[in-house]
Amino acid sequence: MGEPQDAAGWWAKAQEALEAGEGNEILDCTQKVLEHDANHDEAKKLRVMVLMQVVPLLEEAGKWERMLATGSEMRLLDPSNPVGGMVEAGAQLELDQLEACEETVVELLEQFPEEGHLHYLRATSLLRRERYGDAVPHFERTVELDPTHGEALLNWGMCLDEQGDSEAALAVYDRALELIPDIVFLHGNRGNSLRNLGRHEEALQSYERALELAPGDFHNGRLRAEVLTELGRYDEAIAACLELSGVSEADYRANDSLPSLDEGEMAAMSLCVLLRSGPNSLRQVMGA
């Protein structure tokens, strides 16, 4: 028995593939249906349904170009469904096609203004372009539409921090903390806000929580050392800097070109400044 010669024949085969749960066969058959009848709505709906199941696999594999093409096809097949456009915009974001992503999302928001994920995608594209003030209302709208969106809260707080409003940022981070308590980046950012507000003891606790979640993390370890210095806990700050650098106290003291550890504040401050250049900066200065 040969291949079907018309849309009806291919549609019948698509139904058989659906009953058998053969996704690839469904895609092949619906493609043939649409080649014979571009207006076959049932074939379009079935194809979109299967493509939606493919998207998470593409996302997991990081196949962004293919995900972009899939989202574009879904959007073309069913313009009344925002999912295809969201897939397309999400892939554009991952491919760093930020202007294209924003254009896609702006167009979709005209049709689907209450879709929270569209606001999140637009806000994220604006954030990536360092347009923090423009991103804020879209992160805020995302959370209004989905109060459980912890990542939107985290990024909203970051935008507020970048605008110099640490108090507002802290309030948003605290909301995020209730939803995503184990995100290292959140605790580090929260520590920065607290530090900016002069609440150094609380900032120290946030950095230490970040380090509990990611032991040995250089960035938060360095910030912890800086806060210890600001709190006047110089011996602890020095010990933290040496540990981050992988340098023993004995090796440090043997190097006459470095500030004496006995100078406390000066040594701690010098080490903190030096570590801003990276984890190997002290060893490089020592010639190790």
Describe the structure.
- By secondary structure, the protein is mostly helical.
- It has a domain at 1-61.
- The chain is 76% helix and 0% strand.
- Helix 8 runs antiparallel to helix 9 (150-162) and helix 10 (166-179) runs antiparallel to helix 11 (184-196).
- It is elongated, with a radius of gyration of 27 Å.
Task: List the main descriptive attributes of the protein structure presented here.
288 residues, mainly alpha, 17 helices, 0% strand
List the helices and strands and how they pair.
Blueprint: H1 7-20, H2 23-36, H3 41-61, H4 64-77, H5 82-94, H6 98-111, H7 116-128, H8 132-145, H9 150-162, H10 166-179, H11 184-196, H12 200-213, H13 218-230, H14 234-245, H15 249-253, H16 265-275, H17 281-286
Helix pairs in contact: 1-2, 2-3, 3-4, 3-5, 4-5, 5-6, 5-7, 6-7, 7-8, 8-9, 9-10, 10-11, 11-12, 12-13, 13-14, 13-16, 14-16
Task: Give a brief outline of the structure.
The protein is mostly helical. Helix content is 76%, strand content 0%.
Low-confidence stretches: none
Compute the average pLDDT: 95
Strand content: under 5%
Number-wise, the strands total 0
Overall SS class: mainly alpha
The total of helices stands at 17
